[in-house]
Amino acid sequence: MRKHLFVLLFFIICSCKKEDIEIDISSKANVLKVIEAERGIQQLDAVSFCVVKGNEILWSDAIGNATRSGTATANTRFFIASISKTVTAVAIMQLAESNRLDLDADINIYLPFQIRNPHHPNVPITTRMLLNHSSSISDAFYYTFDFTCWNQDCTIPLGQYLQDFFDVNGQFYSNKNFHKYLPSSQSNYSNLGFALLGYIVERIANQPFDDYCEQNIFLPLGMQKTEWRLKNVPLSELAVPFSPTITPNEPYYTLPDYPAGGVITTPDDFSIFLRMFIKKGTFNGAQILRPQTIALMQQKTLSLVRGGLKFDMGLGMYYHQYKGKELYGHGGGDQGITTNMAYDIENEVGVLVFNNSTLKNLDLIVYSLYQFGTKQ
Prior knowledge:
Structural class: alpha+beta
Number of helices: 10
Mean pLDDT: 92
Strand order of the largest sheet: 2-1-16-15-14-13-12-11
Helix content: 25-40%
Number of strands: 16
Order of helices and strands: HHEEEEEHHEHHHEEHEEHEEEEEEH
Radius of gyration: 19 Å
């Protein structure tokens, strides 16, 4: 199975509702009972989580087996898969705020190669379309290849990788890289589209995408345990992904389209990023985005439908339902990775849950932690 096929399947599975379960969450002990029950039922390995309200962490903890040295702790880092897209979206919106990028301009003005859907060659693709997955770029052909780099960061440059897919002379170019519908008319989840956003950041900022994020997002926010590159992470701190598709002696992996899913972090550290969103772009005096930009990202655009479920897309994030409560955020899933970030815009309560197992349903855990947060 290909890496990002897991992401699409996760997008469906982790948003299923458990309407028939009523939870009395009045204490940490009750929440931990729910988490332990889900660990047993779903055979979860480690579960690491953080609950925030406004600027503050209400509760963070970790249980289960995660690292080479054993039990997970609050300092254990996890691959978070597609939650990473929210960082890529913020980088793009920073460039839009500074008028270095026009969300509605043809992306070709930022690229050294040209991209057009061959089914609609006269219709431009824009960064706004990439952000809400309406670009008509398809991952279907991409899934037929295996680009996994085991126990190392992929060495192929991001731009070269994307040019191979989208330049008509590229070795992976195909009409199958595009849906037949008109760009902006429908929403279909695209990892290649988000990798393109990362490359656009590189082109405009004239520096590697991971360096841009370090200098303009992670360092200003004080996120000291968040990285894009495996080489920068002590393996003793990194959760081992558990999956039948992973060889135990080479459990770590990266992919060349890393802006779509490559962040490695802890729940506490990434909660800084979440709290920045909750507080409308600013955390501890560091303004990452303006309040009006956060509001723009939260506006519903198109709906994405998967498995009969509807997700209302914002820009870089989406809305989904937990027992009738609509939360804004993003999930992630891959080989040995299931993660979720969700927050209540009005009540400023947010939850992060990271797990090192494949394709699990974290809904009940997320909802229980969210309910705990609302009662504090």
